[in-house]
Amino acid sequence: xxxxxxxxxxxxxxxxxxLKGVEWKPRAYRKAAQGIENxxxxxxxxxxxxxxxxxxxxxxxxxxxxxxxxxYLLKGKVKKFEQLKKSVPKGLSNLMEITSLxxxxxxxxxxxxxxxxLSDLKEAIKRHKIAKLAxxxxxSEQNISRGLEIxxxxxxxxxxxxxxxxxxxxxxxxxxxxxxxxxxxxxSLRRMKETIGDVDVLVTxxxxxxxxxxxxxxxxxxxxxxxxxxxxxxxxxxxxxxxxRVLKDEEYGAALQYFTGSKEHNIKxxxxxxxxxxxxxxYGLFKxxxxxxxxxxxxxxxxxxxxxxxxxxxxxxxxLEAAKKGKLxxxxxxxxxxxxxxxxxxxxxxxxxxxxxAEEAAKLGYDYIAITDHSKTRAIAHGLDEKRLRKQWKxxxxxxxxxxxxxxxxxxxxxxxxxxxxxxxxTLDYSDKIxxxxxxxxAAVHSGYKSSKRKMTDRICKALENKYVHILAxxxxxxxxxxxxxxxxxxxxxxxxxxxxxxxxxxxxPDRLDLKDTHVRAAIEKGIKISIDTDAHSYTHLPYMVxxxxxxxxxxxxxxxxxNCLSLKELLRVLRx
DNA sequence: GCCGTTTTCGGCCCGACTGTTTTCAGTCG
Length: 577
Prior knowledge:
Number of strands: 17
Mean pLDDT: 92
Helix content: 40-55%
Structural class: alpha/beta
Radius of gyration: 27 Å
Strand order of the largest sheet: 11-12-13-14-15-16-17
Strand content: 5-15%
Largest sheet: 7 strands, parallel
Shape: globular
């Protein structure tokens, strides 16, 4: 994507300018980069339609940066940026990623000790050269050394589904302390981001010291990084960082708002407060010295003339502008979900019987599920050939008959489905004769992940042309922390999906969460419907729906955008179309 | 470099903690 290329270039320039001690420009470059990342339209398209003026309409892009973008679009590079890159060693800005090293210190290390990269830094630490520098000391050197170790381990982010239970356990323990009034997690965890950098916990108490002593001595804590009366940071035994803030109970609303973020959202919100003659901090919304709002988050948003908004929306990607106009979406909720359209049984690579899956799904209050075992080519997952598929149909028919005679509360309908492989040439793993008999056909790519963008795009688009395909499963194929998305022109896929009225999946499995939030938003803007499915391989996976719903919420999805919010009757009508 | 319901010039989010200094700069979220 050209947009990401340009944004990355601007971020890189911001880093270099910051290293050189240039004021304000880095901030401007980063803002422009963010503005570009948030676009749903292609930079080329904007430039073609409206020229440089169009580029200047992008938030954060002014005359100068618009010229640079124009140059990049036309020539593939920017002369000024090339010169800037040459002025510092390549990779020096990477050192800023290390905790406790920022632009200033990194540049001092470069100027005084000639440190240009990670190995130079390691060598300097070994010889204790850093501790001798003015403004540094033994502690600084130790902190940099630790930061370097953590950096080398890689900054793999923790899955939401892994972080949430740990955070809940810590909160459970804190709740038992009588000095604590209220406690909540905040940060990216509360925003339900797909991965979590660190766990943020907010506590209200009038005895902050006791709280901090208790917290830093928890069994989960491996090392204390910082400890103050209002703010402490520790490293947990599993390697995650955990920050705790202690505030007064009456500051809870302002504190929760502040500590939930995102950072970008907060900055924008504070700017908005200033424009209205207020000041916003974690201690409240102030007019002069007078605190005018702080008890609840809603109070703060309302005072600023905004609609109240769910944490999932707080990313500074247009939610504040929408809130001002009263145009925030009515986000889908877990209770709106009426069924789950992708799951596996013992027939292929699932561990439970169809009956068990149906029974557990009924307990979740669903009206229907689709059993979508793998097709024959997925031999490794015991994919079903036509014969076994027919056998499965018989079993489903028998189960449905039995379920129909049961009491109404527990009645659930099992739909005959399949997760059909999209073969390398874009044809499907079953003949049309079989496909037309399936009630839910989910097409999926499970091979050739390394093929070219063109080839993968053609392959998927061709599969979507098949009139029996209903849903495209996990459209980008990524697995978080393990496998990147395959090369794919998602816009082209969206176009076909829109034209052929195909449904795109939000796979709720915690390491997939595919489509991503930004993709969901783009798809919905085009009027494409989505389906939030767990891809469960065991009945214990069925509750993963909550992660898929969170993902869709971050993509501004409403109930009307999601096909498995439809009643069984309505859903069948859509599928048969 | 960007931006304007205080401004076309002069601002640019706000506060906590640490380490190295003796009053504060750098870093972080």
